[in-house]
Amino acid sequence: MKKTIVTVTLNPAVDKTVLITNFKAGRDFREEKISITAGGKGINVSRVLTVLGIPNLATGLLGGVNGDYIKNQLDQERIAHDFTRISSNNRMSLTIIDSSTKALTRILERGPKISKTELKAFTLNSERLLSKASCLVLSGRNAYGVADSFYGEIISRANRLGVFTVFDTSGKPYPIGLKKKPLMIKPNLKEAEEIVGGKLTLFFQIKKALDHFHNLGISTVAITMGSRGAIVSNQRQIFMATPPPINRKSPVGCGDSFIAGFVASMNNRDSFENSIRLAVACGTANAFTINPGDVKLQLIKKIYNKVKIRKLKKLSNG
Ligand SMILES: Nc1ncnc2c1ncn2[C@@H]1O[C@H](COP(=O)(O)OP(=O)(O)OP(=O)(O)O)[C@@H](O)[C@H]1O
Ligand SMILES: [Mg+2]
Q1: pLDDT for 318
Q2: How far, in whole angstroms, is CA 201 from its chain's centroid?
Q3: CATH number of the domain bearing residue 39
Q4: Mean pLDDT of the chain
Q5: Domain limits at 44?
Q6: Is residue 25 situated within a structural domain?
Q7: Rounded distance, CA 43 to CA 140, Å?
Q8: Ligand 1-lining residues (CB < 6 angstroms)
Q9: Exposure on the CB side of residue 35, measured as CA atoms within 13 A
Q10: Atom 16 of ligand 1, nearest CA residue
């Protein structure tokens, strides 16, 4: 049986995005454009994988009317899914994009509290799904009520089964999970700075950060830098990939789209260099849309040919 890519979203959301000109706190506004979608970082990755035609399965925790909405949306988009049911309602996230300044304001709910029984049910389900997985993408914030060590436990299980794990979260579970040696991480610059505890402004600082992560046992590290692209290392080689300049609509989900591009390319056994190229192309294609992961294949192909990629020298100690 051919194995699949499994994405995990522990705290999915109904994502509402509103465009408003000259948004300011303390005033009433009428929206210019509103769009609602099934969100959460793992789901965004699944959405892009589906556009790329790569078999994948989204899992996580769904409940209440928002959970029903997310499920129906996934069905409509033909995104395969196998979520564990919870008793409380999933959250709703609001993104306000100021159409004049492009400034982003986000209101992120904490999400429902997950009970021990629900988490146990999810663990059993994810163990079953892991046995069918070639790659596991663990993305997004931990759910409320779930121990900070939970992601780390899933990573250990995936490693025992030889599943390639991509880990992309923030907050306390991140450093704890990193100690369990996921095979790939994709922090953005700010997240990477938080973990290494210092500014990453110069190339040599970024290279030192890459070494720091490799020394933890993480074999592939992508540090993404928004419009400046990404620096990606697999211990043997380091590449810097730069997308063409664009007029971005929304950066939300660019990192998720980047991950989808990378694992899709890996799934097709493409080279490291081409995987980075597709990752950056997918990340940049996502910046053209206000709905996270709502990327267009034609646009990805166009950007792919315009991504500039160059090999960087490693630090002298290897
Ligand atoms: N303004 C932009 N112009 C062009 N490409 C962009 C822009 N913003 C993001 N990208 C693309 O998306 C990739 C990932 O972006 P970024 O570093 O913003 O991820 P992120 O902060 O993890 O995003 P998120 O967590 O919201 O998914 C970049 O490497 C780049 O290819
Ligand atoms: Mg991110």
Answers
A1: 44
A2: 23
A3: 3.40.1190.20
A4: 95
A5: 4-20+31-312
A6: no
A7: 10
A8: 188, 224-227, 229-230, 243, 246, 248, 251-256, 258, 280, 283-284, 287
A9: 13
A10: 226
